[in-house]
Fold:
Amino acid sequence: MAYGADQPLDTPPVTDWVNDWDWLDDGWGENAIDIWNSVREQCPVGSTERYGRAFMPVTMDAVRQIANDTDNFSSIWVNVSRPDAPRAAAPPITSDPPDHHGHRRLILPAFNPKAIASLEGELRHFCRELIGKLDGLDATDAALNYTQHIPVHGICIVTGLPEEDADLFRDWIYKNFQLAPKDNRIRLEVLTEMTHYIDGLLKDRLKNPKDDLLTMIANAEIDGKDVPWDIKVGYIRLQIVAGIDTTWSAIGSGIWHFAQHNDEVKRLVAVDNDHMLWQTANEEVLRYYAPVTMARKVIGETEVSGCPMRPGEQTLVTFPAANHDPAAFEDAHIFNLERENNRHVAFGLGIHRCAGSNLARLEMIVAFQEWLRAFPNYSLDPNKKTTWANGQVRGPRQLPVLLNR
Ligand code: HEM
Structure:
């Protein structure tokens, strides 16, 4: 394997997911759930040497232990990458106690339940417009023409980011998550481009304030002290990388699932939008198809489920794998539209639990309601292939469907 700082890692296909896992392997995106289930039958924590030594916990116990232990696991590295990768702060997700609390307190109000609930009408209108553009078509790519647009619209309303730059955001996200963990040059390129772009937006808001999160961040103080500029840039960097392909993936996975379960679609469209069945279905999509796997840098000598970990090593926090642990969920392998007590960890757990979960849940449920009601008989296109994103955020990126009106 190449380790020159300027060369991308050159990695062969994975044949042993227990001792040599790789979340950027071509097999990961489509087969991740089977991979985690198979590793779990053999041991609670897989490992690899591809990015230096790095672990892959697959049980709820192991994932919970890591997420809750900020003494031994730092968020300074939240993506398993080559150890010499350039990194930039994107708080609160990249910060540890005691700093984390102030950063989180600053951004949380923008995502409070009342503020988010008020966006429902606009999001519904937006989904209907996207569906309207499919008028007269028998088939479409639901990822390209539907799922990818909804979260960008949501995040742009909340933050004030310009929606016309959506392609740029998605390009950065693709490079950042799919290519950068193995390629320092690409990571640096994305970091630099994003910094430059966000710097411009924040400076503009200092001169031309608006009623949005960008303006609030441009002027942000914590405990009466101005927040350093690179941290302000980091807050916005996080909004872009955390708020778009995450929900895009969750909506896409749900649309992919329901395309193959017309019986479930029939049950859902038969009830009103405020019926509990929509809520439980939304939560089960989150459990079963949880898109986000995080990571930590090991900073203390410790042990997880019998697996020793040492400072400088890395570990995934495989929330999606924990959601399939039969020790944590009855019939974990079954997608149950009415699952009760669904204590999934799709949004993480502990101090870093997702700040955008209200927005994500709303975007998902509205997107499902509008799509399933518009196309209650849609199905996957048997002549074309769904493609899945690998790595940190997993979900369909091409999703060809027949609309079967
Ligand atoms: C279905 C969609 C989403 C999923 C599955 C998801 C998942 C997660 C997870 C697992 C974490 C924990 C990170 C960790 O432990 O290191 C997290 C944190 C975070 N998420 Fe989300 N997320 C979603 C959507 C969003 C949206 C729409 C936003 C809005 C910008 C957002 C903003 C954040 C932020 C700011 C944090 C960091 C919180 C902290 O460190 O205190 N997320 N998310």
